[in-house]
Amino acid sequence: MSELSWDYDEFLCFILIYASYADIDYDENEKKAILNLFSEEVYQRQLKVFESLNDYQALDKIMQYREKYFSTPHEKQELLHKIENQFSVDGTYSDFEKEVFLFLEKLL
Which pTM does this prediction carry? Predict the structure, then answer.
Protein backbone atom coordinates (compact mmCIF):
# COMPACT_ATOMS: atom_id res chain seq x y z
CA MET A 1 0.00 0.00 0.00
CA SER A 2 1.47 3.36 -0.97
CA GLU A 3 1.85 6.04 1.66
CA LEU A 4 -1.43 7.88 0.96
CA SER A 5 -3.54 5.20 -0.64
CA TRP A 6 -6.32 5.16 1.96
CA ASP A 7 -9.65 6.72 1.15
CA TYR A 8 -11.35 8.76 3.87
CA ASP A 9 -13.26 5.77 5.30
CA GLU A 10 -10.07 3.74 5.60
CA PHE A 11 -8.29 6.62 7.28
CA LEU A 12 -11.18 7.32 9.67
CA CYS A 13 -11.52 3.64 10.53
CA PHE A 14 -7.81 3.50 11.36
CA ILE A 15 -7.89 6.56 13.60
CA LEU A 16 -10.99 5.30 15.42
CA ILE A 17 -9.26 1.97 16.03
CA TYR A 18 -6.28 3.93 17.34
CA ALA A 19 -8.57 5.92 19.65
CA SER A 20 -10.30 2.76 20.86
CA TYR A 21 -7.01 1.24 21.91
CA ALA A 22 -5.85 4.41 23.71
CA ASP A 23 -6.82 3.10 27.14
CA ILE A 24 -5.66 -0.45 26.31
CA ASP A 25 -9.22 -1.64 26.94
CA TYR A 26 -10.71 -2.26 23.50
CA ASP A 27 -14.16 -3.69 24.16
CA GLU A 28 -17.02 -5.06 22.08
CA ASN A 29 -18.97 -1.78 22.21
CA GLU A 30 -16.06 0.08 20.66
CA LYS A 31 -15.74 -2.55 17.94
CA LYS A 32 -19.48 -2.44 17.22
CA ALA A 33 -19.41 1.35 16.97
CA ILE A 34 -16.68 1.14 14.34
CA LEU A 35 -18.44 -1.66 12.46
CA ASN A 36 -21.60 0.48 12.36
CA LEU A 37 -19.63 3.00 10.33
CA PHE A 38 -17.53 0.76 8.10
CA SER A 39 -17.67 -2.56 6.33
CA GLU A 40 -16.18 -5.63 7.95
CA GLU A 41 -13.59 -5.70 5.15
CA VAL A 42 -12.40 -2.14 5.79
CA TYR A 43 -12.39 -2.75 9.55
CA GLN A 44 -10.37 -5.98 9.33
CA ARG A 45 -7.87 -4.47 6.89
CA GLN A 46 -7.30 -1.38 9.03
CA LEU A 47 -7.15 -3.41 12.25
CA LYS A 48 -4.44 -5.58 10.68
CA VAL A 49 -2.45 -2.47 9.71
CA PHE A 50 -2.91 -1.00 13.20
CA GLU A 51 -1.77 -4.19 14.91
CA SER A 52 1.37 -4.29 12.75
CA LEU A 53 2.52 -0.85 13.92
CA ASN A 54 3.92 0.49 17.16
CA ASP A 55 2.42 3.67 18.64
CA TYR A 56 4.94 5.98 16.96
CA GLN A 57 4.32 4.36 13.57
CA ALA A 58 0.54 4.60 14.01
CA LEU A 59 0.78 8.31 14.86
CA ASP A 60 3.10 8.83 11.90
CA LYS A 61 0.57 7.12 9.65
CA ILE A 62 -2.16 9.45 10.96
CA MET A 63 0.03 12.51 10.43
CA GLN A 64 0.73 11.52 6.83
CA TYR A 65 -2.93 12.18 6.09
CA ARG A 66 -3.08 15.64 7.73
CA GLU A 67 -3.12 17.61 4.49
CA LYS A 68 -5.38 15.18 2.72
CA TYR A 69 -8.22 14.78 5.22
CA PHE A 70 -7.99 17.40 7.97
CA SER A 71 -6.11 20.42 6.73
CA THR A 72 -8.75 23.01 7.64
CA PRO A 73 -9.90 23.93 11.15
CA HIS A 74 -13.41 22.67 10.30
CA GLU A 75 -12.14 19.28 9.09
CA LYS A 76 -9.93 19.00 12.17
CA GLN A 77 -12.87 19.72 14.50
CA GLU A 78 -15.05 17.15 12.73
CA LEU A 79 -12.31 14.55 13.11
CA LEU A 80 -11.74 15.40 16.78
CA HIS A 81 -15.48 15.17 17.43
CA LYS A 82 -15.57 11.66 15.91
CA ILE A 83 -12.57 10.64 18.02
CA GLU A 84 -14.16 12.03 21.18
CA ASN A 85 -17.38 10.14 20.43
CA GLN A 86 -15.40 6.93 20.05
CA PHE A 87 -13.78 7.49 23.44
CA SER A 88 -17.25 7.61 25.00
CA VAL A 89 -18.69 4.51 23.29
CA ASP A 90 -17.72 2.16 26.12
CA GLY A 91 -19.65 4.27 28.63
CA THR A 92 -16.62 5.97 30.12
CA TYR A 93 -14.32 8.72 28.99
CA SER A 94 -11.30 7.98 31.14
CA ASP A 95 -8.72 10.48 32.29
CA PHE A 96 -6.17 8.71 30.11
CA GLU A 97 -8.45 9.01 27.06
CA LYS A 98 -8.87 12.72 27.83
CA GLU A 99 -5.09 13.10 27.88
CA VAL A 100 -4.78 11.24 24.57
CA PHE A 101 -7.49 13.49 23.13
CA LEU A 102 -5.62 16.63 24.22
CA PHE A 103 -2.44 15.20 22.71
CA LEU A 104 -4.20 14.47 19.43
CA GLU A 105 -5.82 17.88 19.43
CA LYS A 106 -2.40 19.53 19.66
CA LEU A 107 -0.77 17.11 17.24
CA LEU A 108 -3.38 17.43 14.55
Answer: 0.86
